[in-house]
## 1
Amino acid sequence: MVRGNTVPSKRTNRNSNRETNRVRDNAVNALGPIGQLLHQEHTDEHNDDLNTGAFPQVKKKPAKIHDARHNVYARIASTLTIIVLCALLGFGYVTQSQNSKKSYESLSEDELVRLLDETNRQVDSLEQQRTQLSEQLDSIRSSANKQQELERVAQENERTSGILSGRLAAHGKGIEITITQGGKHIPASVLFTLIEELRNAGAEVMQFGDVRVVASTYFLDTGDGVICDGVSMKAPYKILVIGEPESLTNAVQIAGGVGSQLRVRYDAGVRIRQNNNVQIDATRQPSTYSYAKTVE
């Protein structure tokens, strides 16, 4: 009768475990306190083992060291960004202040006087407008026939607004400017700068060629000239200006101004003639507005 491999009985396993425990106890007793400590550590690890099959294995969460470091780095980056932005802002402010200071320091005495005169002239103009409006308001309040006084003030303001908007012709003292082109093309931007300089100098009414200059006037370059408010023009350009002749002349002739740029950079000829009766006949039709309406 042939016998196969037999499975060890429970009694055999129990005897083997007893023998193992006896050997371990003898080793612990031989090592003394050190052996007892090692035995206790092994026992604790065995008791803490949760991988028994009856319960799901519980994994401890790793310490959030990475998140803490990330938060620290983010705060440092934010602080550095704020410091850099503040430094750039301060640098820009200082640079702008220095450039403004240098720009005034580089001006000559005549140019500084002109700037001061233009500023004073604008202030005086605003004061005159305020005084005129105050007088009109007082006259309306003190008038016995307020309706008649309102009509008179409305007609007076209509004439003024008609001249400013270009609807009415005008005449008065001022200057006549003639610009001849040399070997270089005069760009539209320079002519527009000339118009702006004349406005700053106190020009009240202007005419460029056959075009009445208003607030919406524009210039465009062409191959052999410019376009002013849709009208093609070629040199020589003639500009009529009504205003204080001396101030208007200084605005063009001042050193480093637009007149000097025309002569030096574009080889253009600039001739100015003062006239006590400049006649401006060019007018503009009232604009048609799609949305804006007058207040009744």
## 2
Amino acid sequence: MQIGSAFFSTSVQAQGNQPVTTSEIGIGIGGANYKGEISPNYRFLNNQPALTVFYRRDMSNAITLRGGLLGSHRIFDDKSFSDEAFDERPLHAYRQAELKFSLLELSGVVEYNFLDYYDRSQSPRLSPYLFVGIAGMLYNKKLYMAGNVEREFDTDITVAIPVGVGLKYALSTHWNLGLEFGARKTFTDKLDHLQAPDFPENIANPHDNDWYFYNGISISYTFYRYNCPPIYKKRPGLLD
């Protein structure tokens, strides 16, 4: 699962009916994908290796905030997105485009848990969830057409809206397993270099923006903090 952030605290009920706050750190592996001119549909075989690290904090039984860093890079030089998968389409057969693509994403999202995942009396402890947020992406791309370099490597940044679904499962009191699939709606048509007015409409579609995706599995470690009730503190904090 891709995961999240926030430095606020609320409490849930734990052992002995004591207020407790939970947070997680974790790491995940999976695949990053792209949808645009070269790959107009999501295609699982286009996935290239990706790695994510994250921090998550519970805000209530249903809401968690998370922040994550996601990276994906071509391991092999020939690992690329290509028109070849869509050769039955006249435009793709004519264009013969190939894209080499790497990305680094920083994101913050809100997760909505359908079950009380932090209730340790549950057996098993699991919950499906939805998420939505905002992300910034640094990306690098190189475009080939008909076997020739059409655009050299270029680095750019963009903003995206991550949305998706996932599943959390508690392996033990502290260890968790996660699965997640997420789509990122971008506000640019430049992920693949194929955009108007650089290319005519018979080469590039000027009417929609590019998307990218992440699907993967993660493992995380939960930290529990038992909070002293404010009445027993000499100086209660702002968030107490």
## 3
Amino acid sequence: MHRRLYLALITSSLLAVTAAGCAAGSTDSTDSTDFGSAAQSIGACGLGDEVLSVRTYTTADIPELTALQKAQFVTAFRESAWNDITTVEEAFLHADDHELRATILRDSGTGQRYVQVDYHVGDNPYGAVLYWNTTVVGAAIHDGYPEECGPLTYDYDQGDTAPECAGFLTYVNTASYAALDAYLPSNVAQAIVDARTVAPFSSIASVVAVNGVAETRLQQLLTAARAASLVGASCSGIYDQIATSATEATAIVALANEANAEELHGILAFEINQTVVDSLIAERPFATAAEVSETYRVGTATFRALRNAAAFRGP
């Protein structure tokens, strides 16, 4: 019996390889190989009722995998008896026929996307369903049966204030009226003092909830917090009401520049009007997170989703 290893990988570079591999016959939308109960038209535990793409890979594709893709492969392979492997090379070595197949799934009701990884080690299929752009297992496949089923959707949100920018909230919560008044209109400074007396600010959203505070006032407050040495260079800035670290900003720019349309649609599946994907593609290359934020139709929800996805996309 020929033995197979199948892996679903999700980033744009791998999807690009899928397109390039068509001529070589390495990409297919269906596969007649018998996978037993693991080869469902939907993912394990019902995570995903639509198959978006399928591709078979060989060891020759390893150099093109990103760090996230390799980590996904290792995570899924550890669902087999080889639960101590640490590298993608080891996984290929122990996989039957040293091959893998990538299957991207989508839930039509929620828009959530997944990566299902099926492979054979011996006579039985193993694998996992991973949430899109993560190494988090939504369902395990053991001996062909789904187990340890997780929720349909994964909470990607990381809050609206990066730890590197937490000094912004410290400043807004502790600055005197006089200090605030030096940067803001007097009525806004007083409104902030009154609001924090009732409850300390715990997020950017709670600051924006104060009457008179919007994007311009946030930037003025950030300037004041930097002047007070409470926010340093590791905080890139506040974009669309999301306080973003320098590391996050770099990842956001990379995502906006490199992700193909399919990946962006997956990230922004919650949006009714997804013309923002066209805008992002048309405006790139981006040099800064601010440029991404300023793109037509990119607002707080979109920027937050891009930040969340970038955080899980890996280098």
## 4
Amino acid sequence: MIEISRTITFGQFINNHSPLTRMDPRGKLLCLILLIIVTSLIKSFSAFAGLLLFCILIQILSRISTRYVLRGFRPFLGFLAFIFVLQVLFYTGQQETMYWHWGMLSISLEGLHTSVLVILRVLFLYYLFSMSLFTTSLVDLTDGMEALLSPLQRIGIPTNTLVMVFIIALKFVPIFTGEIERLIKAQAARGVRFDQGNFLQRARKIAPLLVPLFLSGFKRAEALSTAMEARCYGFHRGWRRSRRRQLTWARFDLLASLVTLLSCALIFLASQTLP
């Protein structure tokens, strides 16, 4: 029987009262933006090694089991391996050291180097996003995003609505995970074995579950919209969502932001000077 909720950990909040959990969501979002920018720009293994050291520091401060975090990488490792192979074989950049060539396919040192950097970048970005969701509740994430995007609200951009749509989409990830796990267990109770057969046979068994899954999602979305309308959410012009608590910057928030900024600068400098 497939236990999807134990494998897909993306979007789950872990309230273990760690320093990262207690950190102001605005500070966490600013640090996340800086780390995403530097992860997207660096192009050397030395810089990724520095980023790995910073991620180890994040892991220590989060007080979350490393095994639990790494479990979230398992579902798409096969897809990343497939993308890695395609990128190596169809690399079209400058190729000075060629190992194998046949028609349009080739394996070169430059292709391997570029492909490994791309996969590392994807893995680090997924880790950063996952840790931000592990240590931030959806309520705090909503408050932090609205606070950071509040200047755009003054020029007519509906940031509150955009943030709410994004948060609802994140909220539906664990909901859909639990729903498809319930459907799989129901089919398994009727004798369907999802752990047998090749990839195509398993996909053929899962395909009939898509219809009830989407129907359940539409019902939940309709119930959510009805509940929001009943509470007059966004019903009149100039409305403003109330907050359960006021966001305040602490000394740790400022220190964490400065350390992140300094670390990002050093990592980017290492990317420009070291191989």
